[in-house]
Design goal:
The chain is of the alpha/beta class. About 55% of the residues lie in helices and about 10% in strands.
């Protein structure tokens, strides 16, 4: 078990968020067993970082889980570590089904959490005992670490430390850590604080040398620069930051222990973990790569060469995907980049699906069909892959196979409104209008403003000569944003109503 402590002298620098991102990365991408501890006892909240813990069932489990404060309090009351360790941790799974265990700061639902915390006399707990040659606190933490290793058996123990120069920070850094990530932002108080911490760590000549990695976080990205082009001011900022720590290592050595993580402005609207390799916007590409840089430098030595090769191949593949998605608009160029990407990593369903989309745009349907089938083979539980398979079958007029694919997508994700809509289209093409109507209704229940579904439902009723229903759903579609009146006027589905006065009046109402 390797223990990594995340420390910042000041709060609000992204320490807990980086720990949570590393936990997900280790669990999902490196397939490592992970345990995380919230040792920020006076400002706890690590559990809030994990979206997978926000469902009602896990919130109820969290409300009945004790933590570090109760563990220490029980030891203080009885003189022995608690017998039942299961009370003090909460196992949960990531979206990809990989396990993480959380040891919280304590049970914040209980009114006596704060009393128990403030009753802890840290100086007394860690007072040297001549009889044992150790302090009780040291023995307690060694016991805790041993129980984590024996009962949870994680590959990595990640500790979220208290800020400032405190007893808790000393515990998490000096007593528990095998390696420490020291995080700050670009201001004097952060640089000075981290300097004081390092000076304290190295002040005792009998202390073991603790490997550390410095992270300068939330460095802004200059607007207007193309991707992969850094703000020219970064070199100056980095040099000034590292200059503060020249007492501890030579410049070249410090540079190897240093990373920059760029700011993600969208965090102002709510924190979100950097899960997996997929990114939804170009600015997040650099932030994702920055995290990988930190994780690589801190953990690479802990993995076998074959384990690391899998990650590096996937990392190279996704860099090519980022180029395809953000650096070019040419479909053929995207296909060529994705060919190279899949050459590095032929075991990732998302890459095959993205190339499928590009192949379809270039009318290479045979190759596209092969790619979407490969995506499903690699990840059969992703509903959108099955829906995409249905779309290509639908375009080939193979409605029976399309229906089967859409039904599979809905089986996996019952509220997948696009799959219900596409299923309605496939049934309509077979003139199975009752089934088509049911599918469109389901899509509309899930997404009431789904204009395409509203319009197609109106068309089916027009084909069935059910005028009142047809005009009702057409009006609903128009009111909710269906804007192509010319299309309605030319659509053959409305032949039976084209000369109808009510139909003309409805269109005239929205024309004006």
């Amino acid at each position: 078990m390797k223990t990594i402590t995340f420390y910042s002298f000041k709060g609000g620098v992204g320490r807990s968020l980086m720990l949570s991102n590393m936990a997900l990365w280790l669990a999902d991408e490196m397939k490592a067993k992970v345990c995380v501890i919230d040792f920020d006892l006076e400002a706890p909240g690590l559990h809030h970082k994990f979206e997978d813990l926000q469902n009602p069932a896990d919130q109820a489990r969290l409300a009945s889980t004790d933590g570090i404060v109760e563990y220490i309090d029980e030891f203080k009351q009885t003189g022995r570590p608690p017998a039942d360790f299961k009370r003090f941790y909460l196992p949960f799974k990531t979206k990809k089904g990989n396990p993480i265990s959380l040891i919280p700061a304590g049970n914040l639902q209980k009114a006596d959490y704060w009393r128990k915390l403030f009753d802890i006399n840290w100086q007394q707990l860690f007072e040297y005992d001549p009889a044992t040659g150790y302090s009780n606190g040291f023995l307690l933490l060694e016991d805790l670490k041993g129980r984590i290793e024996n009962e949870l058996a994680p590959d990595f123990l990640l500790i979220d430390s208290r800020t400032g120069l405190t007893e808790i920070a000393t515990i998490t850094l000096k007593l528990l850590a095998d390696k420490v990530i020291l995080m700050g932002i670009n201001n004097p108080e952060n640089k000075d604080g981290l300097y004081w911490v390092l000076r304290n760590l190295y002040a005792d000549p009998n202390s073991r040398e603790l490997p550390y990695h410095l992270v300068l976080n939330r460095v802004p990205m200059q607007q207007g620069l193309v991707r992969n082009t850094k703000d020219p001011r970064e070199k100056k900022i980095s040099a000034e930051f590292l200059e503060r720590f020249k007492d501890f290592a030579a410049p070249d050595d410090l540079a190897k222990r240093f990373s920059i993580v760029h700011a993600d402005d969208e965090l102002a609207f709510g924190e979100k973990l950097q899960e997996g390799f997929y990114v939804e916007s170009q600015p997040k590409v650099q932030t994702r790569k920055d995290y990988w840089d930190v994780f690589t430098q801190v953990t690479k030595d802990y993995f076998r060469a074959d384990q690391w090769a899998l990650f590096e191949n996937k990392r190279r593949a996704y860099e090519l995907y980022y180029q395809a998605r953000f650096d070019t608009t040419e479909t053929q160029a995207r296909i060529e980049l994705m060919n190279k990407a899949i050459g590095h990593c032929n075991y990732d369903a998302f890459l095959f699906n993205y190339r499928f989309v590009q192949l379809r745009k270039s009318n290479q349907d045979r190759a596209a069909l092969s790619d979407i089938k490969k995506a499903i083979e690699l990840d059969p539980d992703e509903a959108s892959w099955h829906s995409n398979l249905g779309n290509i079958y639908y375009s080939q007029l193979n409605y029976a196979s399309a229906i089967s694919a859409y039904q599979k997508a809905i089986e996996i994700e019952p509220d997948y409104h696009d799959a219900w809509y596409s299923l309605g289209n496939a049934y309509a093409s077979q003139q199975k209008y009752d089934l088509s109507i049911a599918a469109y209704h389901k899509a509309i229940v899930i997404k009431p403003d789904y204009c395409d579904a509203l319009y197609n439902l109106a068309c089916i009723y027009a084909l069935l000569n059910q005028k009142e229903e047809a005009l009702h759903w057409l009006k609903d579609a128009l009111e909710k944003g269906w804007s192509s009146l010319q299309y309605v006027q030319e659509d053959n589905d409305w032949v039976s109503l084209r000369d109808d006065a009510d139909f003309k009046a409805l269109l005239a109402q929205f024309t004006s």
